From TrEMBL, chain A:
Pfam family, one: BRE
Gene responsible for this protein: BABAM2
Notes concerning its domains: Contains 2 ubiquitin-conjugating enzyme family-like (UEV-like) regions. These regions lack the critical Cys residues required for ubiquitination but retain the ability to bind ubiquitin.
InterPro entries xrefs: BRE
Family: Belongs to the BABAM2 family.
Coiled-coil annotated residue ranges, if any: none
Job of this protein: May play a role in homeostasis or cellular differentiation in cells of neural, epithelial and germline origins. May also act as a death receptor-associated anti-apoptotic protein, which inhibits the mitochondrial apoptotic pathway.
GO BP terms, alphabetized: apoptotic process; cell division; chromatin organization; double-strand break repair; mitotic G2 DNA damage checkpoint signaling; positive regulation of DNA repair; response to ionizing radiation
Native organism: Sparus aurata
Localization per record: Cytoplasm; Nucleus
Record protein name field: BRISC and BRCA1-A complex member 2
Cellular component, GO, one term: BRISC complex
Automatic annotation (TrEMBL), chain B:
Biased composition (Basic and acidic residues): 256-267
UniProt feature, compositional bias: Low complexity: 309-334
Cited InterPro entries: BRISC_Abraxas2 (IPR023240), FAM175 (IPR023238), MPN (IPR037518)
Family: Belongs to the FAM175 family. Abro1 subfamily.
Keywords: Cell cycle, Cell division, Coiled coil, Cytoplasm, Cytoskeleton, Microtubule, Mitosis, Nucleus, Ubl conjugation pathway
GO terms of biological process kind: attachment of spindle microtubules to kinetochore; cell division; mitotic spindle assembly; protein K63-linked deubiquitination
Subcellular location: Cytoplasm, Cytoskeleton, Spindle pole; Nucleus
Protein name: Abraxas 2, BRISC complex subunit
Amino acid sequence: MNNMSPEVALHRISPELRPLLCSVVRNGRVGLDSTNCLRVTDLKTGCTSLTPGPCCDRFKLHIPYAGETLKWDIIFNARYPELPPDFIFGEDVEFLPEPSELPHLVQWDAGNPECLLQLVKELIQQYHHYQYQRLRESSRLLFEYDSLLEDPNYGRNMEIYAGRKNSWTGEFSARFLLKLPVDFSDIPVYLLKDTALDPGEDVALLSVSFEDAEATQVFPKLYLSPSIEHALGGSSALHIPAFPSGGCLIDYVPQVCQLLTNKVQYVIQGYHKRREYIAAFLSHFGTGMVEYDAEGFTKLTLLLMWKDFCFLVHVDLPLYFPRDQPTLTFQSVYHFTNSGQLYSQVQKSYPYSPRWDGNEMAKRAKAYFKSFIPQFQEGAFANGKL
Amino acid sequence: MAASISGYTFSSVCYHSANSNSDHEGFLLGEVRQEETVSISDTQISSAELIQVVEIHNHDPCAQLFSFYDYAGKINEESLNSILKDRRKSVIGWYRFRRNTQQQMSFREQIIHKQLTELLGVPDLVFLLFSFISTANSSTHALEYVLFRPNRSRFNQRITLTIPNLGNTSQQEYKVSSVPNTSLSYTQVIKEHGAEFFDKDGVMKDIRTIFQVYSALQDKVQAVCGEVEQSERVKEKIQEDVNKLKQQIALRKRKTAEEEKRLRESQNADSHSTPEENTEPSLASPLSRITFHTPSAPERPSTSPNPPSYADLLSQDDSLLSSSSPPTSAALLPRPQAVGSPGHPTPGPLGMALGLGTPYLGNGDGSSSDSLDRQAAGQEDDEDDEDDDEEEEDEDSSEYENLVSEAAHLPVGSASILAQGRPAALSPDGDARGSQTT
């Protein structure tokens, strides 16, 4: 019953209701967190038990909202598929939207496959409004909300969940889920395509949990869609500063936003810088270029000769180049180590400055090669065997 | 708040619901009344509890869904009226049946409930939710029902619904509910045949007949009471007469005793052997009785106003004692008193003799002095009426036979001895008559 794949659900539901459920299950993205799509579980029937299947007409819909999952029961009648459904809003027993605010209910059209999805979206909107009403119990949190609402960057992409009061302490808790307006479109595609999951929309969500009404216990958390997370360098990219005590969301959120934007900028810049670097090397070393990464511009291999001594130079460009120095690996073409590998030496520190442009870096690298090679040659002869 | 539904209404709702191929809804008709229970316990004088009882008498199923409301859940009052017609006033709630869902009011149900509360003007409209749960292989089906009171606070919404005569098997009797039978056919039949059981006042005829029997019995009892009263009065009168006669007897006894005394004294002055046998036998019965009475005079019953003085009795006894009895007076010998016989507390001749002197006011065995009375009365019978105490005559005659023979043998002079003996003889016979002595 649980974790039912959409196809199974579609198979079991009554044929007349199938199109409605189809659009919900396949295309249903409601709310900010569009990485989690709507899930359907607990398919049951309202017909007599002897009715031959498939005749399921009622199910539980799982809707992600503000970090929570709403579990709403949707009740149809298979024998009367033209009738609009009924809802049971799970534990939110006090949530009672005004039917006049639900146009897709008032003018329910069973022939429109999108009708149910639209109705669910309208209900979510009403739910949002309901949560806002609940938030009014805490003036502090209400202030937070209202201040964010005024900012056009954040106001339109915010979900709030005013949690139940802790029955022991009477504490009030709430959660804000904000979509950060960071532009990820310039991130090089190569970074994004390397994920196993369907990337979907690139989104960064900031979740801020208030465990009490006075905002003394605040826990922020950053959620990135998987491709972005990978593009920005893994989970280390999710480190955000702690919420300052006594601070406000209206100050904190832009801070986080900026941080993320900076990171993205770094990544984009790095890409461009790397490209520039490799282009410069290409022009300087020309025929000595063995291969280079033409997509991500992260690697470069040169075959050079000095006084009849041929050697390879592998250049690894880090993600945060030019801030981080590229790694040079010298490799002899003649000598082997004991383990059967080509003798090589890695150089991480050499004269380098991130302020140089590509050309300058290539020139300096050339100079460094000249100075280092004799040393390497000796080492190769001494430690490697032919 | 308590709620009850009759078994047949409940089963009817279930029938309609279970046979529908989709969700089902309808209205509940009935009445709400207030019940006040006053309970008295050891800790409190009295505590009154006021509860509202909802009784569901009937239900009105809706033919289809959305029959009185639209997609938005707005109720159309005209449709509602056309469904309910004139039953609108007795609507106390509504019900819904849906399979395989939670026991919770849904979105549309809440909207409809609010509107119904306003339209029907029932502040505490109830909502009965049926939920039918089947297992996956259709082996077990559960019908769950919950009665809600949605207009109350959120935490107090569910009411227990009781179905009388269902479930509680410990109760042996069939509980009759107060649900009135509104069927027309029923009223017709009752009207037709009711006259056989009910009289014009609506009271069952059996009750009247029983009451009549009761009244008749009461009258009889009253009559018997009257008869008893009369007989009691007669008895009282007779008792009075008896008492009077006894008094007279006693008086005469005294007189005769005094005469005898004088006579004896004069006789003693002459000779001792004056045969009195002639007189005695001729006056056997009376004389014997009289002589018997002489010694027993001192044993006058308490009814006599002037009992003889003890001194007189003692002197009498002395005279009795002094004279010796002839050897032939074996019969004169005092008959041995049965020890332990009732009324003979002091065995022994002396005791007896002395006992003769003492007026005996009662029998030792607690029997009334009637026995003595009988004695006295028996002796007086010849002189007065013998008919007064018929019973006593028999006894007396039997004893007197014995004593007469003895008296025949004895001289008058030894009347004292006789007197001594006879009473003594008498005494042992006292078992039938009770005691005289001591």
